[in-house]
Design goal:
globular; 12 strands; about 45% helix; alpha/beta; 2 domains; Rossmann fold
Length: about 290
């Protein structure tokens, strides 16, 4: 991976995510690319009048490019102000397209051959909260690549521990392998967290754990992997407790799509966790096999 793609709408939340991504990129010595999805206003006659002044594509594109350039300069100056002159300074590029956030982000990830998209979650007001929430939920559902969701108040303080929530599915072993590649430049620990309401000493549970950890040892090829069983009747509560008390810098999990009715009445664990935790959440699509 040579570039991390960062989705931005120029809100404080997305700017904070871009800042986090820049420091993250600096540590793994890659660049970042800011991307913005925009729409061109069209005529909207109402009561024989035009509702607002019209702007064509070129005008909107120019305005967006100016904003992206200003954000790139701001981030670059901030990074250089706190770094040694001789240290690595990530290249910051940018671009924009017309379309939905999910579609535009996927185009940029494919174009950059990136293995990671970073975006902000939530905002300071109810409107921004709803907007960012809907976009991050859509990205969780539709992305075919890892997405790092950065809460508004999260700050980058290095990556020393990544907790990976698992249900001990065999497909998670491949994802832990990818996670090991990401953790390696930080020399970070990977804590395998399994949340159940079962007793830790249950023989069948322990056999399943042993088999899973053996698979990781054989395939993941990363030495700093640890396992922890978290007893909780509610998976989301268990993961929220881990994020708050486990000295975790990033919480990672796999998004497993639910049926239409489950989404309406229950909601996905990933969507709920994205709303609850205050640490960055790294979401992998189910069955992800490519290396970050």
């Amino acid at each position: 991976m040579k570039t991390i793609v960062v989705a931005t709408d120029f809100s404080p939340a997305s700017e904070n995510a871009a800042r986090y991504a820049l420091h993250f990129a600096k540590n793994i010595k890659v660049g970042i690319k800011l991307c913005h999805a925009f729409k061109v206003p069209a005529e909207a006659p109402m009561a024989a009048q035009v509702a607002w002044p019209l702007e064509d594509y070129e005008t909107v594109k120019e305005d967006v490019t100016t904003d992206l350039s200003s954000l790139a300069d701001k981030l670059a100056n901030e990074e250089k102000a706190v770094s040694e002159p001789s240290s690595f300074h990530p290249e910051i590029t940018y671009g924009s397209e017309v379309g939905a956030v999910t579609d535009v982000a996927r185009n940029f990830v494919a174009g950059e051959k990136s293995g990671l998209l970073v975006m902000g979650t939530w905002g300071n007001g109810e409107l921004s909260r709803a907007f960012l929430g809907s976009n991050s939920n859509a990205m969780i559902d539709k992305a075919g690549f890892p997405v790092l969701l950065v809460p508004t108040d999260a700050t980058y303080n290095g990556v020393n521990k990544i907790a990976f929530a698992t249900d001990l599915s065999k497909s998670d072993v491949e994802i832990i392998h990818s996670l090991g590649i990401l953790a390696y430049p930080f020399n970070a620990e990977i804590l395998i967290a399994h949340v159940t309401d079962e007793k830790y000493d249950d023989p069948k549970h322990q056999q399943k754990v042993d088999a899973f950890l053996n698979e990781i040892t054989c395939k993941a090829d990363y030495p700093k992997v640890y396992y922890r069983h978290i007893k909780s009747r509610n998976v989301n509560n268990g993961l929220e407790w881990l994020a708050e008390h486990g000295q975790v810098d990033i919480l990672a999990m796999v998004h497993r799509p639910h049926s239409f009715f489950q989404k309406i009445f229950i909601g996905s664990h990933t969507h709920q966790i994205a709303r609850q935790v205050e640490v960055p959440l790294l979401v992998f699509p189910e069955g992800y096999k490519a290396l970050i």
